[in-house]
Description:
A: four-stranded antiparallel sheet; four-stranded antiparallel sheet; 1 helix; 28 strands; C: alpha/beta; disordered N terminus
Amino acid sequence: MKPALLALACLLLASRPAFAYRIFVSNEKDNTITVLDGETLNIVQTVDVGARPRGIVLSKDGKSLYICTSDADHIEVLDLATLTVNRVLPAYKDPEFMALSNDGNTLYVANENNSQVSVLDIPQGRIVSEIPVGVEPEGMAVSPDGKTVVCTSETTSMVHFIDVATHTVTASVLVGTRPRFAVFTKDGDRVWASSEVAGTVAIIDAHSHKILHTIHFSLPEVPKAAIQAVGINITADGKTAFVDLGPANRVAVIDTDTLAVKKYLLVGQRVWHGAFSPDQSLLFVANGVSNDMSVIDVKALEVTQSVPVGQAPWGIAVAP
Amino acid sequence: MTTRLATASRAAWLTCLAGIIRREGLRWLGQRGRFLSALVRPLLWLVVFAAGFHFVLGVSIIPPYRTYIPYEVYIAPGLIGMVQLFASMQSALSMVYDREMGSMRLLLVSPFPRWFLLTGKLFAGVAVSIVQVYIFLAIAWFWDIRPPAIGYLCVLPALILAGLMLGALGLLLSSLIRQLENFAGVMNFVIFPMFFTSSALYPLWRMQEASLTLWRAAEANPFTHAVELIRFALYVRIAPLSALVVCAYLAIFLAGAIFFYDPGRGLLARRLGPGME
Amino acid sequence: MPRDSASATAALEIEGLAFAFGKRQVLRDIALRVAPGELCVLLGPNGAGKTTLFALATRLYAARQGRIAVFGHDLATEPREALAQLGVVFQQPTLDLDLTLAQNLAYHAALHGVAPRDAAPDIEAALRRAGLADRKRERARALSGGQRRRLELARALLHRPALLLLDEPTVGLDIDSRATLLADVQALCRERGVGVLWATHLIDEAEAAARIIVLHEGRIRADSTPQQIAAPAGSLAAAFAQLTRRAAA
């Protein structure tokens, strides 16, 4: 009986893939990246990185993770096979967030402290250009056609449209106070930009640069000031958007057709950024104050679980 | 003229049990007031009470929950327990009422043994309370209290066990207490203390922070364990300690009730006696 | 059917029965017999101990002293056999007023282990006998006091008991209803051979009985035919007054 059981156990272990996918969470307070198994949600490893890791982006080949280590004033490259930092890319002071070009060779980095966007050539490992934008740039996004980059500047409360070919700002759109994050819709026609202090999401026409709509949030049981919009994740089918509402401890679910809030999902404290699982069935969000990550069932629109990660989780990325 | 000896056949026992359950169900349906108040009471708590505590509880994850929950989700199992608590006390009360005493006599002159009749009465009360619980759960679904689908099935054995335990307590009280004429008495001395010193409204860790005495009382409170049993089962988990405690209390209460209803003890006689003369 | 020979077996036999609530002695040295087919009235003023005697005879609580047997089955040792042959109409109304007539009767049948399907013809017959056949789907609440009692009598007979105990069954009934009930019970004794013990404090009800047992202050004061009890005093009322006064003195 016993050997048979053992054999069965071995078989089960062997037949299970090593990792279906992994989840990476940057923890800005303890200077680590938490690596979790996407299936079991167990912590696989905690990797020490440079000071204050915040924005993280997966490389196009899925083999490395770019990490804005803000207080170390550079960008670290984490090799996902060995889970070690094997390269350091230069940055100006305090890089907070970045976006990767569609060919995977260029990083557009928001330098919070010097009001500019750095254009970083990854193969060469050097900054090839700097584009002046508003004060305290943070949110970065690249359009699907790769021709436009948007950047939000927190203090100026603007969304800047940058022409990739000329590296110049072609338009600036005034949005709600302290815009934190921006994302293009899949068709490239619109930009969704969240404002932290205003607690709103502006939907901007990417061609005319006009605000088409502003989404407001209200929760009777949450003080207005606590409703702060930060991370946005739009499903691949473009039908549903999730907006992380910071200290409101809720993720708002938005029907992209009607732009109405369908539901508020209770998650951990100060929910900041999120990422989908590869099959889009789950959304993982990082909760900065409760030091954990909540798991949202995208179809059921329910929070199924919250698991502890590091200190002050900030960014989140999923690698297949 | 022949007399059938009913207790000889096994089917007759089931018939008797079914008859007792059927009557309890019909009575419940027949009494509109009782029917409605049983439904409205927990919903009122859900809507009014939970609204005030909305932001308070979303700060900690406690088993069986795997993530942050709004307060109404937390108190739902407590309110299920409340439905069963009220149902059991109500049937205990109806046994104490004079008019009901008559039908208790009718029950007790049945040729079936008394332990069977009392247990049957207990099961009948539990069956009715479970119907009430499921109606409550159906309505609560619209308040976003949506445990996993399988949880609705898993909670059934927990409801039976908790219902039996609370029902046995009611039965015991009905046999013991003489001056339990009105509902207010039971409310003050049984329902409220049991409900408030339990984990129905606040998690135990919160009580521990507030008062160690209160926490100890809650730990010993059978209602706490009934609620936790239901809470875990509803989320497809088992609470072994609570299950054990509920079983133990059930055994104690039931043994007590059968003991005190035993015709040989004369306790029932002492209770009924002077009043009947 | 009783195991002993029919002539020797009483429908109800009580011997040496005594009972106390705490220190208060309610019944002492009770011995009585009700034969099959006999209407026996237990006559006593309020507080005589009639209800306690009935509670003991229906095994609501157990007698610690004395023996009660129904068709030879001792209530203490063979309660199931004894209770199966026993029909009871309690002093208090025991109908479920919120249930229909048919539901009330079906509940009783179930308590005696008879499934609703098997009980249906008996229920129909019982309702017909009670003159309530057309009202079986109405709630018991809709019935008058007399009708409720008739239904309770019909219910007590549903499982065809051979002994019927009636505890002050006419309380609260008008004269017509009382007469009807009495006639019904007399017919039962005659036609179905049911032994009846009828407790009352009303002398006119006792006159119709085959035998009267006078109970006062927990003791049996007389046990004979109405004529024999009435003879010394001239009338039953006078005799009853004498029997109960003498004891009080």
